[in-house]
Write a structure and sequence with these properties.
Helices cover 39% and strands 18% of the residues. With 379 residues, the protein is α/β, with parallel strands linked by helices. Helix 3 (113-124) runs parallel beside helix 7. The radius of gyration is 29 Å and the shape is globular.
Length: 379
Amino acid sequence: MVFADRLVNFYCLLWISSLMSFLKQARSTFFVLLSLNAFSTRAADSVATDIIPVKTVVVTMYEEGEAMGDGAGELQLWLERGNFSTKLDFPLGEYDLYLSEDGVLVICVGGGIPNATASIMALGLDPRFDLSKSYWLIAGIAGGDPEDVSLGTAAWAKHIVDGDLIYQVDAREIPTSWPYGIIPLGATEPAEEPEDISTGWTLDTVSFDLNSALADWAYAQTKDIKLADSDAIKAFRSLYKTYPNAQKPPFVTQGDTLSASKYWHGKYLNQWANDWLKLYGGDSANFMTSNMEDSGTLTSLMRLARINKVDPNRVMVLRTVSNYTMAPADKATSWSITAPYPDGGFPAKDAAYIVGNKVVQTIVNNWGKYENTLPYDAN
């Protein structure tokens, strides 16, 4: 009996000891969880208070070397002429981001549709920024149709059409009755409208219609800007004797843009670009400039709009002419496609900044009106 009592006492003490140990561990765990919860709450509050509201995003496409201090690409003029005091790491992009004190963010996406698509999607999903009310200015250099524009001209677009999703016939095997060897997907001949032009495998990444009222507003703000001319672009445009618009000094206009990763050139492809804009952009579309990024940029922006990260009605595209998309009548296309840009394309880079910045500053200076109301409805 004594042995049994001792055995019971032993197990009681063992149970009490285990219970005390459990309670001690539970208490420690409770305080750890409580601390983690407090930390998480503080972190969430910190993230929430640190989100940066952006008034305008300026999208540039390429830079020559460093972002500042050397030969200027598209990004450098914004940084050296503006007050972009904050540099932000952007590991998913090609360049760091730059933010001004008045809420303008500048990004350089990198040349080509893949870089533009990836960079804009990365920016749109970056938790540091609130882009839901941001205006987007896509501003960069481009080729230009000599039928419509001259070197250094700035054109506000209403339609962006992709030129990569195509059937293409070997140039040596194009039927003699065809004007060129490019066919819309789903069609059987050039410039033929396929039955599934907006569905099926053409998807929704071929044609993008911008807010035409906003494009009109941007044009109205800038149409009287006098753009810089130079001896070099005067000499080059004088070669285009059969194209009156190509011989004009630089001017601001409205016209649409074809986006393709290929750097194409020549009169037959220029005809294709004009036909392509009409086919996918409608009768009001008019091809004026060629670019290598915008369908990628617009693809990302429209996907981000699906989850309310951006407002697609606040997107503007400005392209400025650094070169023509075809040769003059007495020159070979092979000469024209590789000819150096007059003045290194600087008149076009300068125009992209001067014309684009006019719109950016108008938005920033009137943010009280334009934050919640589009400019053309705010007055």
